[in-house]
Fold each of these.
Amino acid sequence: MDPCVREARESDLDRILQLIVDLASYEKSAHEVKTTTKQLRTALFGPQPAAYALVAEWDKQVVGLALYFRNFSTWEGVHGLYLEDLYVMGEYRGFGLGKALLMSLAELTLERGYARLEWAVLDWNQPAIDFYRSIGAVPMDEWTVYRLSGAALAAAAATPVTS
Amino acid sequence: MDPCVREARESDLDRILQLIVDLASYEKSAHEVKTTTKQLRTALFGPQPAAYALVAEWDKQVVGLALYFRNFSTWEGVHGLYLEDLYVMGEYRGFGLGKALLMSLAELTLERGYARLEWAVLDWNQPAIDFYRSIGAVPMDEWTVYRLSGAALAAAAATPVTS
């Protein structure tokens, strides 16, 4: 059985949400997923898509997901792709589906003339890190992402700009 | 003189590119900026903008820049804003322009019902880190961004998906 990677369709929505929750569980954060099928439909298939998805099939079942969006490099002057979620269901790992999803995304990046493909990895996820290094991905070791959300975001938003 | 933060206009393009190069110099990477004014015009003011910019003025001169784009949270089901470049020219630092740009972006994030504002910081940029922590931004310490580009991207793209 060969893996099949294709663009996600609207009929995949429930399954995609399930894969998002499964991935969050693996990251010990399933309780943090608040996304509804309706929100996901708007994001992926609405008039102005916020994100895009490839799915991997095995035996006609969707068992893997690569959810991504476009970012922008001020140094290169062109887009890149940012892979937000890459996930393959536990019992289907080891058959090359994750690799197939990532390689398909690399192909898409290059086809469109974009400069780079990026994604974030949890520092304790050694099997993933080993795989990413093996294909030549470079860790942005010097950089840390900062996040403003919740009460701190609201407080910042309420700060007068002139002072 | 109060700082003024406003949306970037097409007439700001040359100045915006200069600020991008200045920031890259500060990050010891000016030689890596390949972006042209034309690319930047398409990205910021084309029919399908890839990115957006706020500028800070001092004495009617553009001296600061916040360049950002929309990302997407699969856990929240909504957009966030990702601040790609935040920069204020050296001689105009200390007057609150950087803070005014960031707070304006926080306001925009909240107004649109987005979940969060994120950005990456160089680990040796302690003044910036201190400032970001002081407003309640949280470092995503457990995560590292991996990047696939150049020859490694081309090799990945050429890998057959079925094997």
Amino acid sequence: MLKNSLGRELPEYIEGYGKVRPYQGAFVEAEKSSQRAAARIPRSAKRGQSKAVSLEEALDRIGLRDGMTVSFHHHLRNGDRVTNLVMEAIARRGVKDIHLAPSGLFACHEPLVPLIEDGTITQISVSTFGAGPVAQAISAGKLQKPAILRTHGGRPRAIENGELHIDVAFVAAPSCDAQGNMNGSHGPNACGCLAYSYADVRHADWVVAVTDNLVEYPCCPVEISEDLVDYVVQVDSIGDPAGIVSGAMKVTTDPARLAVAQRAADLLDQAGYIREGMSFQTGAGGISLAVASKIRDKMLEKEIRGSFGVGGIHGYFVKMLEEGLLRTLWDVQCFDAEAIRSIAQDPRHIIMSASQYANPENKGCVVNQLDIMILGGFEVDTDFNLNVITGSNGVIMSASGGNADTAAGSKISVVVSNLMKKGPRCLIKKAVTTVTTPGETVDAVVTDKGIAINPRRTDLLEALKDSGLPLVDIRDLQKLGEELGGIEDHPQFGERIVAVAEYRDGTVTDVVRQVL
Amino acid sequence: MLKNSLGRELPEYIEGYGKVRPYQGAFVEAEKSSQRAAARIPRSAKRGQSKAVSLEEALDRIGLRDGMTVSFHHHLRNGDRVTNLVMEAIARRGVKDIHLAPSGLFACHEPLVPLIEDGTITQISVSTFGAGPVAQAISAGKLQKPAILRTHGGRPRAIENGELHIDVAFVAAPSCDAQGNMNGSHGPNACGCLAYSYADVRHADWVVAVTDNLVEYPCCPVEISEDLVDYVVQVDSIGDPAGIVSGAMKVTTDPARLAVAQRAADLLDQAGYIREGMSFQTGAGGISLAVASKIRDKMLEKEIRGSFGVGGIHGYFVKMLEEGLLRTLWDVQCFDAEAIRSIAQDPRHIIMSASQYANPENKGCVVNQLDIMILGGFEVDTDFNLNVITGSNGVIMSASGGNADTAAGSKISVVVSNLMKKGPRCLIKKAVTTVTTPGETVDAVVTDKGIAINPRRTDLLEALKDSGLPLVDIRDLQKLGEELGGIEDHPQFGERIVAVAEYRDGTVTDVVRQVL
């Protein structure tokens, strides 16, 4: 067994995964030179031949077979129909041992569970996960090989350097022409952009566009271009609009949560981060949007303008762009209808690849320019390590997404939450179930019961010493949780490793074991 | 010696170039599978470190040394200051044996001649060439190794598959931020787009942006993104606006030339190419624009709308876009101020990479979707082979550019010219000085003395047999030229090979020898 620098014990080798590189620090691996993988360019369509074929014909021509790795992107979110459609077609052919490597999976992918059970799918790699049947099946030990949970930056890193070789990338395309020029911003099932698929498209042997909106050549705008696409498959529907966009996201109205959000904004202001040219990212949860709303209040009050909002983009960022409070938006994924509307028409709303967003191994990523990150998370430990993968029952609920990437890149990363959550369970534990985001990259935890600053941030502690903010030791918050009756969960895990949590650089922060 | 399928004798091996693959037909090599080169990702700027350095500092950090290959792009055309600036800095360091591999060189690059003479530059590869001192120096045998003249599609093919490995790509950036996000469409020296540099940027070991317009992060729009850029160098001026854009291009007013243009439009119409959804490309010369103007008249008369204009984009195409006669423009380079204005604001004016434009080895290029191509050229032979490289005195005047690419891809390619040109010299020769574009891809030659259709195009001959158009045998046009007193040039060539003319697939159509 190995022990990584987070104190987690890991096997040196995991069957079905390979040799384990233990996590040794957030910025160790990123200093090394590397090389991109050499992509194959198969001769697919000859000159004058149409690329528009049926799904079956595409699978025939590719020679889809046992053991291949196929990928998808998750911009259609919980409305995606393409992954199920293609995987069911693969299963009907009797193909087995597929490595399914989409950027994300959601509850709508329940039809994949029988394909896991019958060995059509034996491995899964993702960088974002919606809680639901597939995640539960993995936790229950149904997948033959361990799932690999990467970060949003770690996935394109692994694709670009060849760690994750994709045989066939399928791209759900809201608009596409018969040569494969496509975009995500137009069409009846517009999802905004297709940015998580860019690395796939450049590095997969084969690229197949799947569209329900075949348009006249050339499709305009061109988000992914024909020189990278082998086949175009037309289907009835790529998605369910109701699942593609989340409902209109609203700032929480709960006074207690609003108060925590206000406290977070006060912390950021007093520490000097609310300033001209600032940038920030928040998730789309109620409390995250509440922090965004409080930051907006401060910006209006101070008459300052920020440079960019980044990440999955939601209507609240669009509003700030249109108000002139943010000069630009960096978008890797649209969360809601407002974001999709904006990306289709506003040139200040810029698409970036997932590699540009967060890959630590390229020549520079946007998260490194980010000032403020409001982090989500299920659990925090007294070393500030974050768990965004497993719930308190030990079952996989999510994957890292951009959490570890933005925590590492941003100038200040803050977890904002009530101390006591449903159960009651305390946010802060002596040890988290699964380490996703190393504590060395998490700067503060803001709760209704006080603000804990990471002791590594002596600069922050100094800046805030006379602020009047209720600074507390994180260990005291943990003890307070016990006193307030926080339940300690003790999920029963077996020995079997069902998932490997990779840091953005490909080292392992933790493993997830089967829930008995 | 080898003989290629064009009947040209070639050595099997050329010192300083390597093994010769003889041209065997326009579509032979394009059927093979291939592999992209694996790009290196050096660790340049560490997190938090600025990429903005002086040119000297960038050269130091890169470790620029003898024998390296450096590249530039030619969108600043005859106003470019960056190539000279960087090459002179390299020469000052005493570095020798540089392979200079820009997409194009113009008369403004005269200061490179002394660097050729002193061995700083020993090899040059380009895909477009303006007549002038550098081309003359090559023809005079001053360059140590043979120049490699590629097509606009052949260049990105060679970069992508590793035939042309670039150590350092310099990108002249009309707008750029300190992280390397840049565009060609904004700024005091806007040139439209930077599309010829995209292959360089993805495959070079090192990428250096050179800008005179450093803007706030993030630069918007983002044409080339920070994840691909190592350093950003600020200079006083990247170019001379007067040289960046050609003067306003005008349709010829010469009645004889207008009559030839009308004849070309009549041919295209009667052969069925002027139709709803049609696409076309013309150069920006007076007679080419005259053909565009006659095509426009036909489109107005027939009340049809085209799908796209493509290529180097000029104001005439912009006008047709804005009139609604073309639905989109595919742009790889802006020729004039109108094109630059349009690309900065009109989303129907789409940028494509040079690979997407014309690379025969990727998964599909735009020239393969092109209906009509109006070709330029210095000489045509009786096999319809075109010479766009050497003038009648044997001196290099240009390079293939998109000529061979579009001839191969388009449904009909037409040379339009008066039969007798200045001298007087006849357009049509028994043999051209240098074969650039194989006759099997050239469909018609339209002159004031008659229209010659390539006998391979039996379909065209059939379609036009009752058209009333003056169809003639190309050999009769050649003889007529002799009768009209056309001068036969006999330039004196030495044995030494000074340039190799590569077809788009990397095979050799011809070599250019030293002019004595």
